[in-house]
Write a structure and sequence with these properties.
This protein is α+β, with helices and mostly antiparallel strands and 204 residues long. It starts with a helix and ends with a helix. The chain is globular and about 55 Å long. Strands 1-2-4-3 form a 4-stranded antiparallel sheet, with helices on both faces. Helix 2 crosses helix 7 and helix 5 packs antiparallel against helix 6.
Length: 204
């Protein structure tokens, strides 16, 4: 099995996919269940996923995604949806800590009360920044775990987010953060250059 280092180094953005390769719902759910171990602020997990699995669904998404061919030719596209009201699910999330004995009900209530008070008083801009950061973490895990499974990906931030919000009827407090095409590569990726850490790092 490849190491985390090897997987990270092998992962490349792929834009040409084998259109005959498919992924089952079970395979995609397995990938997402592994990916949602990503960290998030106060463990509020401000994400959900829309998975464009069928050819018809991907074809309909393509014009919203700036007509990028890999949207249609990949095996699936995962849309990571951010949630500005992530604090509303705090009680449900922290119930699991009570059930496992890590918190008492009283401790949970105090913790949830503090979380809700803090987040509900934050600006919408701040809440979106928090959710955007966290959706970035889960998105990277999706791509690394896909590579571990022998799959390739490309993240897409350039799409019509307003149109996406309308067509797929997102809630007012939700926003589409990123689209991730996933499938079997039909091209050999070109290794892209990176600046050396020595050029980017200052030790204090």
């Amino acid at each position: 099995m490849a190491s985390v280092k090897e997987i990270a180094q092998q992962r490349q953005s792929i834009r040409t996919y084998d259109p005959t390769a498919t992924l089952t719902e079970e395979e995609l759910l397995s990938l997402l269940n592994d990916a949602i171990t990503a960290p998030s602020s106060h463990n509020l997990q401000p994400w959900r996923f829309l998975v464009f699995q069928t050819e018809e669904a991907r074809r309909a998404l393509r014009p919203i995604a700036m007509n990028q061919e890999h949207v249609e030719k990949s095996s699936a596209v995962i849309a990571v949806i951010g949630n500005r009201k992530m604090y509303e699910q705090a009680s449900t999330i922290y119930d699991a800590l009570v059930e496992s004995g890590q918190l008492t009900e009283e401790q949970k209530e105090r913790r949830v009360e503090g979380i809700v008070e803090y987040y509900s008083s934050a600006s919408e801009e701040m809440l979106e920044k928090i959710a955007t950061f966290d959706t970035g973490l889960v998105s990277m895990q999706i791509m690394l775990l896909a590579k571990e499974r022998g799959l390739d990906t490309v993240p897409m931030g350039g799409f019509d987010k307003k149109k996406f919000h309308e067509v797929y009827e997102l809630k007012p407090h939700e926003f589409p953060a990123v689209l991730i095409a996933i499938g079997k590569a039909a091209e050999k990726p070109t290794k892209t250059p990176r600046l050396e850490a020595e050029q980017l790092t200052t030790f204090l």
